[in-house]
Amino acid sequence: MHGSPVPSQSRDWIDVTNPATGETLTRVPCTTEPELQRAVEAAKTAFHSWRETPVPTRARLMLRYQELLKQHQEELAEILCEENGKTFEDAKGDIWRGIEVVEQAANIAALMMGETVENVAAAIDCYSYTQPLGVCAGITPFNFPAMIPLWMFPMAIACGNTFVLKPSEQDPVTAYKLAELFTEAGAPKGLLQVVHGGGQQVDFLLKHPDIKAVSFVGSVPVGQHIYRTATDHLKRVQSFAGAKNHMVIMPDANKQIVINNLIGASAGAAGQRCMAISVAVLVGEAQQWITEIRDAMAKAKPGHWKDPNADFGPLISSAARKRVLDYIAKGKAEGARCLLDGSDVKVDGYPGGNWVGPTLFADVTPEMSIYTDEIFGPVLCLVNADSLDDAIRLVNDCPYGNGTAIFTASGAAARKYQHEILVGQVGINVPIPVPLPFFSFTGWRASFYGDQHAYGKQAVRFYTETKTVTARWFDSDIEQAEHPNMTIQLK
After folding, report:
1. Torsion-angle region of residue 21: left (phi > 0), alpha (psi -120 to 50) or beta?
2. Which of 70, 91, 214, 353 could covalently link to 230 via disulfide, CB atoms 3.0 to 4.6 Å apart?
3. Are 88 and 195 members of one domain?
4. Catalytic site positions
5. pLDDT tens column, 62-92
6. CA distances from 342 to 87, 271, 300, 347, 362 (A)
7. Domains of the chain: total
């Protein structure tokens, strides 16, 4: 707060645990209501001067910030690994994708340009300005503790707003370091506020009259609550929710490339990605590849982030592990064929970790809970389809629309798929098609509640308002401008 840490007076604290060991790393306060109020007030005060700061000055702040993030990337990655459990390379990738958004925020001057039309009527011109909203808020999840905050506050602040960030209480230290580096980059006091806690603190932000816009990434039930509550309080909202992402595998695709990509996209990050592939749709003769998929997936190894041979880390918490194990049990009970069961996996030296091994189900049908629900673990479901049309119908019947992919050698099949599929982000021979920051992250349907998406041009529209000016000047005023001291004789 005000550019430096402020000790909380809260009586409620949450343990932050290492998911690979179960050990407590630190404790995070549930920010009290008076502290939340002061954070919002500080951001509101900072907004009055920041909105007048020239756009190139804002861009230079982002240039300094991205350079500091690059310099501290490995330090940030180690913090992230300890509290989140990701492998070191995965953690560095998390940070790098955030850095790319900060680099895009440094291009803010071009993104905030208005429009002009001369002579919309006789001697009348019309032009528009892009102006900031005020105080914005972000509520971020545990699974990308660097990237997703960096989706939000750099773009919002570059647009001239100030920001209150509520990171996940499960891995908040990464966000603290991001804020520390932002201050080091030269951010004025009050520009970025970081508060902590759970649902009570979130609801305070959703209802506060001085917060104009809310960004959220998380689960479907929470995403719906965020959207309903914030819009009921007349705020702009972008709420990114759950997913069930399908990879359609055509029989003409390169088998080895498909399998390599499928394993990484389903088990990577322990499946804790909203863009993870959790369903593979095997079309026609591709159904003969099941044994090879199983054998390749069996080689995916969970482990501690310091183990260079680990392919993915633990789940974030014991509760998350239990939830995934419950779904594995449901899949068996519902009649799916469990070809690979990671329920009892052990990692040497880390008996207290939240480990789940790679798990593979075949003969999965759309009625099963392992198909309908987002499991958020290293669990892959194999579904059969007779044709590309059948595969498209299957994906479109799923309520989610975050991401999907098709692997094929046929340009015609790829074009048909990308055109007919009701999903916002499509990969063609790319398993996890997250767009680079000069585009926007464009989930559809039950994966997103709102109108404007994260980063790119849509983020600028979300974090700004357009002011349109219609101006008329009179030729008769020119003579007065040339001779301002001339006395006008009135008859």
Report:
1. alpha
2. 214
3. yes
4. 274
5. 999 999 999 999 999 999 999 999 999 999 9
6. 18, 13, 11, 12, 15
7. 2
